Amino acid sequence: MTPPNEIAGTAALSICEALLLALNDHKVLPEKEIVGILEDAAAAHESAAEHDGSDAHAAVAALIHAIIDGGNSVRRPDGRVS
Q1: Over the stretch 8-24, which tens digit does the pLDDT of each residue have?
Q2: Cα–Cα distance for residue pair 65/67, rounded to 1 Å
Q3: Which of 11, 23, 59, 61 counts the most CB atoms within 10 A of its CB?
Q4: How many degrees, rounded to 5, is the angle at CA 68 between CA 65 and CA 70?
Q5: What residues form DSSP beta bridges with 61?
């Protein structure tokens, strides 16, 4: 990615993470559903990577899995971000 695209991508990721946190905080979506959304997004990029061999798709899927594993997008009932 060129630097402007990296900036736009980082902004989009931050906005999406904030939206997922807000949806969970306001009890619009439970944590399970939010994790499901992230898993679906990762699976779509994994499929695309398998189809076209794209390193970019594989990297996006890996990042989404890291977000799920590191818990950056879901706030737990005790207030911590998981």
Answers
A1: 998 999 999 999 999 99
A2: 5
A3: 61
A4: 105
A5: none
